[in-house]
Amino acid sequence: MVKFVGKINTAVFISGRGSNLKNLIKFSEKKISxxxxxxxxxxxxxxxxxxxxxxxxxxxxxxxxxxxxLSENKTIKRIKKNKIELICLAGFMKILTSNFIKKYKHPxxxxxxxxLPKYKGLNTHQRVINNNEQFTGSTVHLVNSKLDSGxxxxxxxxxxxxxxxxxxxxxxxxxxxxxxxxxxxxxxLANF
Length: 192
Ligand code: GAR
What we know:
This protein has 192 residues and is of the alpha/beta class. The chain has one domain: Rossmann fold (3-Layer(aba) Sandwich), CATH 3.40.50.170. 35% of the residues lie in helices and 22% in strands. It is built from six helices and seven strands; from the N terminus they run E-H-E-H-E-H-E-H-E-H-E-E-H. Strands 3-2-1-4-5-6-7 form a seven-stranded mixed sheet. Helix 1 links the parallel strand 1 and strand 2. The termini are close together. Glycinamide ribonucleotide (GAR) binds next to helix 1, strand 5 and helix 6.
C-alpha cells in the first residue's frame, strides 16, 4: 500500500520538446498521483515544453546554465523556497554538479533512453543500431554525481526490429517513457 500523505511538491527540469513533462503533468492531475508539479526549470528559454507549463499556469524558471554555479545557486534557492521534495529531470540536457546534488537533500530522478548501464550519454538510438543490439529501452534512475549512473528505479525494454532506425526508436521509446516515468515515481515514493 502506498504510504505518502498529501502530494509531494515536484519540479520538472526540461531542455526542449517536453513530451515527458506534458505526460507528467497529466499524471500529476490524477487522484492516484503522489506528485504535484509546482515548478518547471529550464536552461533553454525557447524550450517548446515551456508551453505545457504556461498552459497549466505552472510557474517556470529559466536559467541558462552557462555560468553553472550561478544558475545552480539560483535554482537551489527557488527550490528551497518552494519546498520541492522531488526533482524529475525529463530531457534536461545539462549535467548537475555534485555540489547541487549534495545541497539538495531529496531525490532527483532522471529518465534516460537506453538500457542503463549500457549507452550512457548522447545519441543512444544511433549507437544501439550501429552495434546491432537486439533490444533497447529506457531507464529511470536516481541521479548521483556520475553521468547516468545512479541507482536504477525502473527499466523497460523493447525489441529492435530489422527496419528500425534512430527516428522510429525515438518514437517508440518516448511512448514507453510516458508510462515508465509515472510508474517509476510511484515505485520510488511507495518506499518512502
Ligand atoms: C527523452 O527520450 C529522454 O529519455 C531523453 O530525452 C528525451 C526528451 O524528450 N533524455 C536524455 O537523453 C537525457 N540524457 P521530451 O523532451 O519529449 O520529454
